[in-house]
Design a protein that fits this description.
With 215 residues, the chain is an alpha/beta fold. The protein has a single domain, classed as P-loop containing nucleotide triphosphate hydrolases (Rossmann fold). The chain contains eight helices and six strands, in the order βαβααβααβααβαβ. The protein has a six-stranded parallel sheet with strand order 2-3-1-4-5-6, with helices on both faces. The longest helix has 24 residues, at 49-72. The protein starts with a strand and ends with a strand.
Length: 215
Amino acid sequence: MSRRYVVVAGNIGAGKSTLVSLLAEHLGFIAYFEPVLENPFLKDFYADMPRWAFHSQLFFLSHRAEMHRKLSEDPHSVVQDRSIYEDAEIFAKNLYIQGIMAEREWCIYQALYATLAEILPHPSLVIYIRASVSTLQSRIKQRGRDFESSIPDSYLEGLNELYEEWISSFTLAPILTIPGDSLDFVAESRDLQVILRTIIKRLEDNQPYLFPYEM
């Protein structure tokens, strides 16, 4: 198989990092995880979200774009944990919908993101882990991160809706949707083998899929 660039997408607790690790282990891809960044605007953002949301999101967007550029230059096949697309289409958009980011700021952000999304190399495949809020909350509880323990169902549901909107209109790469409620790629090795075989088939298939499809 020639070099491939795969993105794993999904809500908080969907299992993105776990699947990225498994793909790297079983397919020999180089894993790129979300970088731990010291966002200089983050403290200000939590103190005054409407004032600092735009600055904070621009910082994340610029770093995600730089990471996207670097991994595109990696000579090996790579798999990425969350992408620049989700930063913009899910999390920044959510701030705008909630009224935290002003409309004129959102328009500037969107224009910059649209340019980056077009000029940066597109993925070979986007793997979207679709999971219900109950599944997300169960997995969030299992991993035991204190800062995630108080995430309300309504917040996760809102993000799920944005994920579905994004994935239904994304045409920059083929989409493979994994039903996260019914397939357990951690506990059930048979499920993982099904997923791996499907991913390999999709990557080897050169047909130009323009619309999402599901396993």
